[in-house]
Write a structure and sequence with these properties.
Layout lengths: L3 E10 L2 E6 L2 E6 L2 H4 L8 E10 L4 E6 L2 H10 L7 H10 L2 H9 L3 H5 L6 H11 L20 H14 L4 H13 L6 H12 L2
Parallel strand pairs: 3-5
Antiparallel strand pairs: 1-2, 1-4, 2-3, 4-5
Length: 199
């Protein structure tokens, strides 16, 4: 089992990264909370890994912090939630906020995450309430890297659609941000749009 990968970041997208470790490129699925903390391609990164083995595939899921990994592993222990849904949950809510939502049984906040319906949200709240990790301090993401203004809108729209948001809603949220004249890196812009979508 792979538990940790440390190497050079070859490629970086909102839901996956490729890490070169000794000449071998590992394709790792990551949540947005981890994506925000990674620098530009070429930097050295270290990811905690959950290795998911199925009959037909081995998938790697990477996390910047032990808290993210612990939450992921508890989420996939909830009935009806697989690794992809667990990753979507961690992409749709900050780790510390997820802990709060579970503790307060805030199903409305959980159903704001794309792909999480009312029943799934209730299961998460019920089954995780007594199984939360003891370390509840989430390390804030450090946004890094920038996208040029011309392609920023397209990049944001592509990322949001890949994360499960409806195209029309994503476009409206991006347009609102553009109208305000906000100029930020791709990571900062994506975070701002996601905040507006989950209000």
């Amino acid at each position: 089992m792979i538990a940790l990968l440390t190497g050079r970041l070859l490629d970086k997208k909102p839901n996956r990264v490729v890490v070169d470790v000794g000449g071998v490129g590992y394709d790792v699925a990551v949540p947005l909370s981890t994506f925000y903390t990674l620098g530009d391609a070429g930097v050295t990164v270290s990811l905690r890994i959950h290795t998911h083995v199925r009959e037909d595939a081995i998938a790697l899921f990477g996390f910047a912090t032990a808290l993210e990994l612990a939450l992921f592993e508890r989420l996939i222990g909830v009935s009806g939630i697989g690794p992809r849904v667990a990753l979507a949950v961690l992409s749709g809510i900050e780790p510390a906020e997820l802990v709060r939502a579970v503790r307060t049984q805030n199903t409305a906040r959980l159903t704001a995450i794309p792909g999480v319906g009312k029943k799934t949200a209730e299961r998460i709240g019920l089954e995780l309430k007594d199984r939360l990790p003891p370390a509840l301090v989430a390390e804030p993401g450090a946004p890094a890297g920038a996208a040029d203004g011309g392609g920023l809108r397209d990049d944001l729209l592509s990322a949001l659609v890949n994360l499960g948001y409806q195209r029309a809603a994503a476009e409206k949220a991006i347009d609102r941000m553009v109208e305000r004249g906000d100029e930020a890196s791709f990571e900062e812009s994506l975070r701002a749009v996601l905040r507006s979508l989950t209000r």
